[in-house]
Amino acid sequence: MWERLRRFSNLDPAARELFLRALLLLPLISFRLRFRGFGATQQTLQGFLGDSGKSGTKNSTVLANDLQRAALTTRMVNAAARYAWKNATCLEKSLALWYLLARQGIASTVRIGARKLDDKFQAHAWVEREGVPLDDPGDSHRHYATFDVAFPLHTSETP
Prior knowledge:
Layout lengths: L1 H9 L2 H37 L10 H24 L6 H14 L5 E9 L2 E10 L2 E2 L11 E2 L13
Antiparallel strand pairs: 1-2, 1-4, 2-3
Helix pairs in contact: 2-3, 2-4, 3-4
């Protein structure tokens, strides 16, 4: 436990803030999904974003900074799920990551896919930024057929 506290205190302030936000957000999303469903959870998160989830045209320096912030946000959501909300599903983590990125003005998209393996239906969720998965290591997402049209949870960049 002391080691975890030491590591947390050694994080830079932005990372600590993201970790704490994810720590609070994951159980709220989990609760909302269980009792209200995906659509209501999606609408609630979108409503909390207001205009902060929309970003305009960005230059290459800002885009590089966005990639660094996206990587940090991904690490902090995964850390919060690993250390504090161990039963977080891929959908819960993906919604939390998408929301935290949108709060920073970083456009991303939640992807949901399904497959049938050994006569069992399986579903998976992940977050993409410009077509690149942020929170899905390797290429496990490629084994799922996505529902791009049915679940349009994304922030759009306006020209």
